[in-house]
Backbone:
């Protein structure tokens, strides 16, 4: 059974995907309080820096330490500034399945950055983590993210009706998945 061990820093043509640390708390606080990101993930941002620190530890640092997932900070080459994150979590080693999540500063939308990052992450998941199934659960109103994972080969499996309660309304989530046999390493 795979163990993470050392953090797997990755590079693509334009990106560096690196470990996040508590030094990234300022980025985390501002990024996850961006109205468009909050709306896309249906999860309210942290109220203050202390709450941001706790969330950063829970969602970005501890999963690797506890060998149950991994989250990368995304940086454009030639810069040190984080522009987003992506990760693999809820890793079930026996069933060889996991879920993915990703977010990107809206200033960088439409440039193929998240496609590039997710391709590298999927390759890692299927090749290094030996996953057979990777799923994404995305708010039904987040059409950009749904189309992104579909371009990467994910297939819609169904809708989890009114699964989330956000901003005073019940919201549907779309379940999409990609199996290793369907994945093309492009």
Residues:
């Amino acid at each position: 059974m795979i163990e993470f061990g050392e953090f797997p820093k990755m590079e693509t043509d334009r990106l560096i995907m690196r470990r996040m640390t508590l030094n990234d708390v300022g980025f985390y606080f501002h990024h996850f309080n961006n109205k468009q990101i909050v709306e896309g993930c249906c999860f309210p941002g942290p109220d203050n820096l202390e709450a941001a620190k706790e969330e950063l530890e829970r969602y970005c640092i501890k999963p690797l330490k506890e060998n149950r997932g991994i989250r990368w900070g995304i940086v454009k080459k030639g810069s040190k500034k984080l522009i987003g994150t992506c990760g693999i979590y809820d890793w079930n080693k026996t069933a060889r399945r996991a879920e993915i999540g990703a977010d990107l500063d809206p200033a960088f939308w439409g440039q193929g950055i998240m496609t590039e990052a997710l391709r590298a992450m999927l390759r890692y998941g299927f090749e290094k983590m030996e996953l057979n199934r990777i799923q994404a659960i995305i708010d039904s109103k987040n059409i950009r993210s749904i189309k992104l994972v579909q371009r990467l080969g994910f297939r819609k499996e169904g809708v989890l009706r009114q699964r989330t309660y956000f901003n005073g309304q019940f919201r549907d989530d779309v379940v999409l998945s990609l199996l290793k046999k369907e994945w093309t390493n492009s």
Summary: The helical segments are 25-31, 35-41, 49-65, 113-128, 143-151. The mean pLDDT is 94. The CA atoms of residues 138 and 145 lie 7 Å apart. Residues 10-131 form a domain with the Aminopeptidase fold (CATH 3.40.630.30).
